[in-house]
Specification:
It catalyses: ATP + protein L-histidine = ADP + protein N-phospho-L-histidine. The chain is built from 14 helices and eleven strands. By secondary structure, the protein is α+β, with helices and mostly antiparallel strands. The strands form three sheets. The protein has a five-stranded mixed sheet with strand order 7-8-9-11-10, covered by helices on one side. It has a four-stranded antiparallel sheet with strand order 4-3-6-5, covered by helices on one side.
Length: 657
Amino acid sequence: MRIGLFTNFCLIFIVLVLSLLILLSSQVLGTLDDITAAERQKHRSLQLANELFQSSEDLTKMARSYVTTGDPAYERFFFEILDIRNGKRPRPRDYPTTYWNVTDPPAPTALGKAISLIDLMRREGFSERELDLLQQAQKNSDNLVNLEKQAFAAIKGLYDDGHGNFTVSRAPDRDFAISLLFGERYKAEKARIMAPISQFMRELDNRTQTTLSDLQSKFQQQILLILAVLCTALFVVAVATVYMRRNILHPLDYLSRQASSIAQGSYSTRCDISTHNEIAELGAGFNTMAEAIEHEIIKLKQVEESLRERLKEINCFYAIRRGMESGSLEEVCRTIFANLIAAMQFPHITTIRIEIDGKQFVSGQYDKEHARGLCKQIMVYGQPYGWMEVSYSEEQPFLLPEEQNLIDVIGDDLGKWLERKQAEARILVERELRVRDAAIREFAAHVERMREEDRKYIAREIHDELGQLLAALHLELSLLKGVENSKNEKVEVIRRNMSELVDKATQSVRGVAEHLRPASLGLGIISALKKLTDEFRKHSGLSCSLHLTQAPVDLDEDQTVAIFRIVQESLTNVARHAEASRVEITLSRNADDLIVEVRDNGKGFDSADAARKKSFGLLGMRERAAVLGGGIDITSIPRQGTVVSLHMPIKQNERIS
C-alpha cells in the first residue's frame, strides 16, 4: 500500500473514531443531564409534598398556640399560611420548613408571586394518581382547618348557626376551643391527612426510581459502547504501527544509512528498496542523486586547480586589509606593494606606483618605461585624491579580469582607509576642543565663584568694619550735643551737617554691601528674588510682578547666585534699554528643571544683530547658565517686548545634619 493511501486511511479512521466518540460523549452527557433533572424533579416533588405536610403542621401549631394563649399574632400567622398555600398571598422566595418559627412576617422585597401549592405540584408533572392523592390530603387538611376556624370562633364568642356560618354570639368558651384542637376528632383528622401523603410518597418514589433506573441503564450501555470503540481503535492503531515499522520505518532507516555513507565520501553507494510505495521511488531518486553527486565531485576537482590561483589573490586582499588596520600611509603602501606584487600572474616584472595628495610611493623595481599598465583612481569622499598604477615592464599578456577586480577593490579600500583616517583626525580635534571647552567652563565657574567670594568678603568687610566705624563716628557726634561748645550755633550746624554726612555714608556703605553681596541670598532664591523685585520697583518706578512656584525650591549656593545674577542682569537691561512699563518674573519647575522667565513689554531688539555685536551682558548670562549645565533662550520681537528664559537642572542642596 502506498504511504499516501495509508495516511489517508488512517486520517479518515481517526476522524470517524473521534466523531463517534464525540457523538457518544454528547449522548452520555445528555443522559447525565436527564439523570440530574430526574433527581432534581424528585427532590422538588418531595419538597412540595413535605410542604403540604409541614403547612398542615404549621396550621395546627398556630391554631393551638392561639387558643392556648389568645395572642392574635398566631391567628394572623394561621391565615397567612393558609393564604400562601391556597395562592391568595404572594409566596416568599425563601420558604423553608422552619419559615414560621419566626415571629415577624417576611419582608416585602422577599415576596414572590402568588401561586397555590396544587398549581406548583401540577407544574412538576405529577401523574393523575399522585395529584389525586395530594388533593385528597389537602382536602383532609381543609377539613381540619374548619375545626380550627370553629375553635377560633369559640375564642371570640361566635358559634355555628347550623349553616356553616359563625354568627351566633355567646360567651367565649376557651375550654371548648381547646377540646376541639386537642380532642380525638382532631387527632383522627390529622391521621387522615398522613394516609394519602404516605401513599403519594410511595407512588412518587416508585415512579422516579423507575425513571432513574432506566436512565442509569442507558448510561451504562453508552459507556460500554465508548469502551468498545476505544478497544477497536487501539487494535487498528496496533496494526497500523506494525505496518509502518515494516514498510516505512525500516526502509527509511536503510536509506538514512546509505545517505550517511555518501556523506562520508563513498560516492559509489547505491540503495535497493523492495517496497511498493513512495519510499521505493525515494530510493530511485536517491540513486540518481548519488550519480549526480559523483559527477559533480569530478567537476569540482577540476575547478579546484583554478581556485588555488584565486586563493592567493584573496590572501593578498585580506593581508592588505589587515595591514590597513594600523600604521601610517607609508606602511600601508609598502604592505600593498609586498602583497599585490606576489598575487600577480607575473610578479617578477610587476611594478606599482601610488600617488596620493602630491606624495608618490613606488615599489622597489619600479620602471618608468613600462610596456603595459593599468590605473585606478583613488576617491576620498567622492572626490579624486590620487592614483594607483600597476604595470608590467615586459611585453606579456596583461592582467586577468580577476586581477583587475583585485586592483579596483584595493584602490577602493585605500580610499576608505584615507576617509577613516581623516574622520579619526577630526574626531581627535573635536574631542580636544570639547576638553578645552569643558576646562574653560570649569575655569569660568571657578573665576565666578572666586568673584562671588571676593564680593562676599568685601561686602562683609565694608558692612562690619566701615559700618562699625561710621556707627561709632555717629555716636561721637551725638555726644557733642552735651558739651559746652554745643551752645555755639556754628558748631551745632557743623555737627548736624557731619551727622547727616555720616548717615548718608552709612546708607551708601549698606547699598554697596547689598549690591556686592545681597544678604537675602543666604535665605534662598525666593527671598533673594523678592528683595530684588522690590528694589527694582523702588528705583526704576516700573511695574514689576513676581510669580513663584508652589513647590519647594532648594538649590545650592552656585545655582542660587547664578539665577540671581541672571535675573539682576535682565532687569538692568530692561531699565537701561527696553523702555518698558511692565516686567514679569516667573519662577516655576518641572520634574527635573527649574525655569525662570523675565518678560517685559518694551521695544525689543534684533537678536541676530545682538549676536553679531557679541553683547557682553547676554554672553555673561549664557556663560553663567552653561557652567551649571543650563541654558538661556532669548526671544525678542521689535515693539513687542523681550522674554529671557532660563532652564537649569535642579541639583539639590546637600546639608550636613
